[in-house]
Amino acid sequence: MADAAFHGVFPYLVSPIDAAGEVKADVLARLCEHLVKAGVHGLTPLGSTGEFAYLSWPQRRRIVETVVAAAKGRVPVVAGVASTTIADAVMQSREFERLGCSGILAILEAYFPLSDDGVFEYFKAIAEAVAIPVVLYTNPNFQRSDLGLPVIDRLSRVPNIRYIKDASFNTGRLLSIINRVEGRMQVFAASAHIPACVMLIGGVGWMAGPACVAPRQSVELYELCRRKDWGAAMERQRPLWNLNQAFARHNLAACIKGGLELQGYAVGAPLPPQSPLSPEGVEEVRRALQAIGAL
Amino acid sequence: MADAAFHGVFPYLVSPIDAAGEVKADVLARLCEHLVKAGVHGLTPLGSTGEFAYLSWPQRRRIVETVVAAAKGRVPVVAGVASTTIADAVMQSREFERLGCSGILAILEAYFPLSDDGVFEYFKAIAEAVAIPVVLYTNPNFQRSDLGLPVIDRLSRVPNIRYIKDASFNTGRLLSIINRVEGRMQVFAASAHIPACVMLIGGVGWMAGPACVAPRQSVELYELCRRKDWGAAMERQRPLWNLNQAFARHNLAACIKGGLELQGYAVGAPLPPQSPLSPEGVEEVRRALQAIGAL
Amino acid sequence: MADAAFHGVFPYLVSPIDAAGEVKADVLARLCEHLVKAGVHGLTPLGSTGEFAYLSWPQRRRIVETVVAAAKGRVPVVAGVASTTIADAVMQSREFERLGCSGILAILEAYFPLSDDGVFEYFKAIAEAVAIPVVLYTNPNFQRSDLGLPVIDRLSRVPNIRYIKDASFNTGRLLSIINRVEGRMQVFAASAHIPACVMLIGGVGWMAGPACVAPRQSVELYELCRRKDWGAAMERQRPLWNLNQAFARHNLAACIKGGLELQGYAVGAPLPPQSPLSPEGVEEVRRALQAIGAL
Amino acid sequence: MADAAFHGVFPYLVSPIDAAGEVKADVLARLCEHLVKAGVHGLTPLGSTGEFAYLSWPQRRRIVETVVAAAKGRVPVVAGVASTTIADAVMQSREFERLGCSGILAILEAYFPLSDDGVFEYFKAIAEAVAIPVVLYTNPNFQRSDLGLPVIDRLSRVPNIRYIKDASFNTGRLLSIINRVEGRMQVFAASAHIPACVMLIGGVGWMAGPACVAPRQSVELYELCRRKDWGAAMERQRPLWNLNQAFARHNLAACIKGGLELQGYAVGAPLPPQSPLSPEGVEEVRRALQAIGAL
Fold first, then answer.
1. Cβ-defined contact of A171 to B231 (cutoff 8 Å)
2. For chain D: N or C, fewer Cβ within 10 A?
3. CATH code that applies to domain C8-227
4. Over chain B, what HEC string results?
5. Which residues of A touch D51 (CB under 8 A)?
6. ipTM for the complex?
7. What is the pTM of this model?
8. How is chain D split into domains, by residue range?
């Protein structure tokens, strides 16, 4: 399974942590089981939704360990590696490969601005440190660095960098990437893009937080897109998009955690000083989930 | 014709001005004739590409007069009205209606930030000043004000505000608008969006500078989208998108004017102190046009 | 007087316009008389506070005519010229010189980004069109273009470009300019800088909206700075700064107009769709003025 | 010494790390000794210049341990605590107090935007975790969160939050803070402000990277400001400012490390993928240091 190309719906998993800072492994495992049974094509711990920026290395390691065990080889686990330094990113990547991940979602954190050469070296070092495929992650909304087309092109020529997940709002940029990399890299959408549009222009799926609370609906949408039944896909897409929009109005992690609590998963709130979802937010998420039959 | 709903390809016309500041009416008329013969569904003078921000009121008036005369009623002329004040915008709108325009493309300029109420009052005043349909124009990349969903919703309830042209890069925002206004307003894409995607999610066409140099190719793409032949549409869309990207790398007006010069229209350069297209830019545009058979 | 170097306090005048769009020349003249009697060193119509971006050319022309007549040669009038094109800026500058202005405050408006060469050409063309001194105006908070150190250096070598008024929040940038232009250009502060600090580092005065409602207090602060009595200057500066901060929280033109209304000048509200100062804003301005004895 | 109020020049120390990731304690200790002998009033490890965002917790801990040992109680050590979570920040703060620091420089990292309440809770938790004074750190240029006046006011009422170090470019903001907190908190400048100006308006010193390579010159400037000899202070300030500007053009850590290498401290380059200072950068720094007699 790890050899097949990644495609389809990869929910960004939340990170349930208790008051003592321990990973709530049982809750996380139950969520993974639910998602796999709902048909998702992969699991992605430690994305933005997974609060990677708020977790210690032992917490991150425990999360990945738990997800790999829960996946039981049924779907690929693509874990987020995020750091400001090459040395730390390489260490994280090797450990996640050793733990049994099928891929690395490579995230570059930065404090000072970075040259394109620095960006290239960071991702290349991750790719060379492991044998599993690497998914580039770019999120200009929250990150200090961005990946321009020239450096994406260079990175697409590194053998095991085989995917890019773009979290900008700029869907046109995805087509520019697709036109430029000529198949050397496949494109995943994020929650800021309309999945049906990204599938139409040649994407292979999406990695997104909302898929955590609407896995079945997401998979159905994906299957319609795969069958190129665009009319039916858009009929599903329209109400699902309202869910994305509801989530976009709030802290992403707070929102997905709030939605999962409504669905019966005791994942808790985001780590302080982040706020839990407000009561109005809870009502908005409840309505959005009910509207698509996810509650 | 003015009564039918606007739809399809509306090229943003450039504004050819000679060294003495006179509108080159013959060149502009010849360009309009060419575009109409190529099948475009409307003509839009005085958008961003038309350098509205660089023209005096007499120049703008003369441009619109020329385009209306050249259109000979075959396609609707939707002229750009742009101002910082209500009084001036109302004056411009009335005059354009009197000159025979079929619609107003309403652009809000601002120096100081504006409240949503101020934004609403501006567009409502334009709509109430004329009997023809109004197209809202939003371009967060170049403008100091933006139109949020709540004010778009309010404006969609003003009787003759019937369209919105969104020039953000955020395609998801278009679906949010479509979901929100429930048919009270129709959506046009701009050159920052992939037209095929916007048509898929429910758009009615696009208003864009590149259509000025690729009118036939744009119309063919539109027809494929209308017939919901999405596979064939994407085959056309892909190379056309490279054209948009080439234009995005340069000053939009300089680029379209440069492309038209290559096609034999002596439209000149943008108004100083704007620079004409650089020699490398000319070569890039030449290659982009040749690649789609537009040169 | 017009030959002496500009220095000291130059209030940015508001532009009183009645409902029919006519300049309220009598109110404006009375305000000018009051300011000159309070000891200001110059008058500056058509800055940001003067809503240049909201006025037609006939309105702007009438404003300048009125201010020149009211000044009666007692203080220099430095009028704002703002445009997107060289041709229009040159026309405005020549006319303001002809009307009797002692200097031009040169403002560059832009819609598309502009190269440094374009920026240089714009200001150079203004300087060459007139014989009177030119003050460069830079306001990165509201404008799409900014003046970097290299282009400021180039412009400082154009004979009659002799001053720069910087409206960034970056006071360090002023010292960088002073270090770089080596006396070829003098620096005026704007309301975003602490005047006493700018005087300490070598500035020659300030052009600012708040001086319109606190002319006497501003002049007293200036005199203390001129005498290098920095301790006494800071004692005046501290409460005056609270006034600047009160104004910074609101639309600048609305605020200064609101303050002047409280002081008995019927200057009206900013042009629609801008909002008049809110009732809470009026109270805040009232308190700020009372605290410094300006009401 | 730890009881006296912090004031004067606190150089931001660089973090020398060898290829194996070990802190070069001997180099760091020698640098601290040099700075203390040059008369600096305190030492600040783990600011931006100290690459806190690139270091692991063991590296940070070792840096602080080394600096405290090198200071030998002669000057206060105020160490940077930076985290995204309250739990981690509290742990770091307690450990730094235990290691013998005289103060905490409290830095808030964030990935998702944070409410003012969240900001308040973060800093309050640090202050309550230790008995030593806390310096708030705000750097809107590199950080995702900013501290507005209302939350600064609230924080100034927490007993041992007694200082704020502002790294914005907005010097006026410092006077607004000083006016607002009425002595409950003292203000330190950062390298983006002109130190003499901040001293004039009531600041108590500066925490800055450039003081690492120009400690003697910085202390002389501080003493002139303390004696209110503003004329002489500005004579020193002007050439020193050119140094700040040279540093502002490059990655701050790379620049200070490059300058220290020129002065004979083998501090190495910033951690990869950050680039070392370019050859042109080295020459620029060399000239800037020579101009003030620091090389």
1. no
2. N
3. 3.20.20.70
4. CCCCCCCEEEEECCCCECCCCCECHHHHHHHHHHHHHCCCCCEECCCCCCCHHHCCHHHHHHHHHHHHHHHCCCCCEEEEEEECCHHHHHHHHHHHHHCCCCEEEEEECCCCCCCHHHHHHHHHHHHHHCCCCEEEEECCCCCCCCCCHHHHHHHHCCCCEEEEEECCCEHHHHHHHHHHHCCCCEEEECCCCCHHHHHHCCCCEEEECHHHCCHHHHHHHHHHHHCCCHHHHHHHHHHHHHHHHHHHCCCHHHHHHHHHHHCCCCCCCCCCCCCCCCHHHHHHHHHHHHHCCCC
5. 111
6. 0.95
7. 0.96
8. 8-227
